Amino acid sequence: DAKTTQPPSMDCAEGRAANLPCNHSTISGNEYVYWYRQIHSQGPQYIIHGLKNNETNEMASLIITEDRKSSTLILPHATLRDTAVYYCIVRVEEGTASKLTFGTGTRLQVTL
Amino acid sequence: GAVVSQHPSWVICKSGTSVKIECRSLDFQATTMFWYRQFPKQSLMLMATSNEGSKATYEQGVEKDKFLINHASLTLSTLTVTSAHPEDSSFYICSARDLLAGVYEQYFGPGTRLTVT
Which 3 state secondary structure label does DSSP give B65? Predict the structure, then answer.
């Protein structure tokens, strides 16, 4: 699976949009981009995933560049409860060998 | 949504003893379960992948005789840390893949904190 690069930490004011970038310049054509987050001492929580089109759900939006070498996770109105480590992961979708390999992630701190 | 549970949520054991951690998919059938380990201030590291009814596949550097994995049913996988030592103290997290989802979503359990004294 392709490796990803994320900034180690970011701050965001409550109520503002949090934009978390991820570089995945070696992504293959059959690899999806996944985002998970981990709140302190809990298991990871799925947020969103996509292949090449932008995606939106009730939690966030995922913007993938046309060349697919980078993406941005957008939390439109961050709250204190969004403080967590956010992981960007790329992986193939097919096959039982498909697995999630976590990098170091971005620690997002939402402040008042 | 799909729920994965783990038991116990935390455990303290003495060095040299063995401890078993259970991972259950509560409302779906999991063909594949994954076991991760996370040390303080570090990311999750995949330890092994287990498919129901077959032997687990371990990641490089993970001792299969020390971390015994059993995936006997579509809803239960167990991880047994044998002859535990203080360096095995960690946060152990399981993850399950939903067979019926049609996509390869992975759902994570809440984790088990193991402390070996």
Answer: coil
Element (H, E) at A55: strand A55-56
Structure tokens that stand for B116 in this block: 């070996």
Yes or no, beta carbons of B32 and A96 under 8 Å apart: yes
Can you give the pLDDT at residue B66? 96
CB A63 within 8 A of CB A74: yes
Cα–Cα distance for residue pair A40/A25, rounded to 1 Å: 29
Contact (CB<8Å) A45/B108: yes
Contact B98, B105 (CB under 8 A): yes
| Residues of chain A with C-beta less than 8 angstroms from the C-beta of B6 | 43
Cβ(A90)–Cβ(A22) below 8 Å: no
Q: Which residues pair with A31 in a beta bridge?
A: A92
Q: Which residues of B touch A94 (CB under 8 A)?
A: 104
Judge whether residue A28 has pLDDT over 60: yes
Bridge partners, residue A37, by sequence: A45, A86
pLDDT digits (tens, 9 = 90+) for B1-11: 689 999 999 99
Contact A92, A99 (CB under 8 A): no
Contact B30, B104 (CB under 8 A): no
Q: Tokens in use for B35?
A: 């076991």
